[in-house]
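Onboarding guide, step 5: your first structure request.
Type a short instruction followed by the sequence, for example:

Predict the 3D structure of this protein.
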Amino acid sequence: MQLDGRAAIDAGSGAIRREKMTTNFSSQQPATAQAESTAGGPLANIHGLLGRVPRLNVNLSRFQTVVGLTAGVLSILGALLAVPNYFKPAIGKGEVVAVVVDAKTEKAVSNATVEILTLNNAVVTTLNSGFFGKASSTLEEGQYRIRVKHPKFGAEVRHVQVVSGQSAEVRVQLRSGASAPLHEADRVIGEGVNAVKRLFGN
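The system replies with structure tokens like these:
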């Protein structure tokens, strides 16, 4: 009877041990699964980032293209805005443009000698009219005389007022024959001076 009791006790102890081992094994499984999921988290993130790399490269190339186009457009706009300022006369100076034409035909006269003088007849510069009969020069602000000569025409004199930052155009009509008399030239100059004085209120 005692042997049977001990056998029963041993059998019961074995069953308890097996139950504990089963319990421990089952309790370890979630921890293992949790560890695998924890380890798989960064790997999954890395795989996700690697999957997005081509997309990021495409977006980056588009961004660089947009930036390049924007910079190009701004450069072109800056150049276009700078062009008018480049052709403007310097501060304190103005531009005078003489347009030489034939009085009868109104056609441009090229290769005419255009002298720009002070009111005291001091020569400031000498120009030649181009194919379209134009001759231009940048001058200090003030009053000037323009004398135009050509072998086939008589000389003509005009008066011009140069204003800083502005362009003054003088149309000179040449006539065939002898030059205008001196008193006629003086009369033209005098009329120009008086007109300028009236303009400035002197």
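Each response can be followed by summary notes, for example: The beta strands are 93-102, 113-117, 123-128, 134-140, 142-150, 153-162, 167-174.
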